Amino acid sequence: GDEGCVHCPINSRTTSEGATNCVCRNGYYRADADPVDMPCTTIPSAPQAVISSVNETSLMLEWSPPRDS
């Protein structure tokens, strides 16, 4: 077409030069509803500082956010 080439979004690649779309690298994903120019993401790391508290009727869990979201 008349449009110039653009780089693939982060964590994605093409399978050939001049490709019309970019696929996510291994371990990275894009939701079906996400646009093809959206970066691919991966699952977050585990939550940090997990604390559990148990009594006769309940269990309460507290944690800090993951290091890598």
UniProtKB/TrEMBL annotation:
GO CC terms, sorted: dendrite; plasma membrane
Keywords: ATP-binding, Membrane, Nucleotide-binding, Receptor, Repeat, Transmembrane, Transmembrane helix
Localization in the cell: Membrane
GO molecular function, one term: ATP binding
GO biological process: axon guidance
InterPro entries, A to Z: Ephrin_rcpt_TKs, FN3_dom, FN3_sf, Ig-like_fold
Protein name, per record: EPHB2 protein
Organism: Platysteira castanea
